[in-house]
Structures are given as C-alpha cells and as structure tokens.
Amino acid sequence: MSKARYEGVDIEITFDSQRCIHARECVTALPRVFVANASGDWIHPDEATPEQIAALAQSCPSGAIRYRRKDGGADEAPPAVNRVKIRENGPLAFYAELRLDGKPAGCRVTLCRCGASKSKPYCDGSHADAGFVATGEPKSKKLVSLEVRGGPLEIQALEDGPLLVSGPLEIMSGTGRAIERTAKAALCRCGASKNKPYCDGAHAKVGFRSV
C-alpha cells in the first residue's frame, strides 16, 4: 500500500509514498510532525496546529502529503489559476483541480518528464540519477487570454506516449514566467523531445515504454 493515514485530534494527514519526490519541505519545516529516519510511525499530527499542517501540506509540490480538517477548518481549495511549472532538469509540477487518468488527484501532482521514473506517471526523483538535462526556462509563446483560468484539469498519460492535458492551463517556467496559456497541450514525458516541454513524437522513435 502506498497510502498511509495518520489520525490526529484535529486533523488527519494522508501520505502517498508513490507520489513523493523527497522535496523535504515536511521534515525541514515541521520536524516534530514529520520525523526523518524514524524507525516506526514518522508522522505525528498533534505536534503542530492544524493551520501549520495545512500550510505545510499545501507547499508539498507532489501532493504526497494531503490533509483533512476535523476541527471545522477549511480543507484545501483548488487554485484560482490552473498552472504547471517546468522544473529545471526535473518534472512537471501541476496545481489545479486535477483528474489523472479519469480519477481525482487532488490539487497538486508532480509528473515525470525524463522517462526514467519507476513510478510513472509520477516523478520519483530518477531524473537526477539519469542525468536528465532540460531547461526550466523555455521561450515564451505569444500569450492569449483565457476566458476561464480555473476549474477541472484533465490529464491523461497516454500509454507509451505523452501527457494529454485538457482544460484551462497556464504553462510556467520554473521561476514563474508565463510560457503559454492554453486549453489543450501534449507534454513530453519520454525525455527525448527536442521541443520540451511539448511532445514532438520522439517517444515512438526512442521506443519509450510507460510501464
């Protein structure tokens, strides 16, 4: 099982190891809640306030850490603007009301674009060992205005192919610069496209396998 739940008095924390990219926001920001290298349970929800835990969870780019308030406080809401950040030499970090392969996926997910992850479509940090090199600062396209900027975002990880994204989306550089605003995109996840972050069909030439 990749998911584990940790019950506190006022908040429940869910941790999904399959989605974790080891950004270490949790163990550095709230080390009494998220205890690194613990031999047993490593998450202790009652060691911080629900507000602190909620803020920490929302800084987790992969969505591996999620929460449910039990004290009447607000649970996480989708962002007003759907966006994906292109990480330098790394994955695609999505922020939206997400559906991945037809299933609800929360508001945050980090997806592989190097082709080497053993947990596809999720990033597992393999880009570092694989020596993946891809800019997080591609050139911007001519920007258009979208009538709607938020709402559901559908991501389909095509078998042996790209990520097909449907719904309003702002594609952003790793530093936050707008690259494109669009309602449809095909994003590379084989690592071989010469037009990253977009798919150029290279997955077929390199024999990319998504499983």
CATH architecture of the largest domain: 3-Layer(aba) Sandwich
What is the count of distinct domains? Answer: 2
Q: Could you report the average pLDDT, rounded to the nearest whole number?
A: 96
Biggest beta sheet attributes: 8 strands, mixed
CATH superfamily grouping of the largest domain: CDGSH iron-sulfur domain, mitoNEET-type
- The CATH class assignment of the largest domain is Alpha Beta
Radius of gyration: 18 Å
Poorly predicted runs are none
The tally of strands reads 11
Task: Label the overall shape.
Answer: globular
The secondary structure category is alpha+beta
The DSSP helix count reads: 4
Helix content: 10-25%
How would you spell out the order of helices and strands? EEHHEEEEEEHEEEH
The end-to-end distance, rounded to whole angstroms, is 19 Å
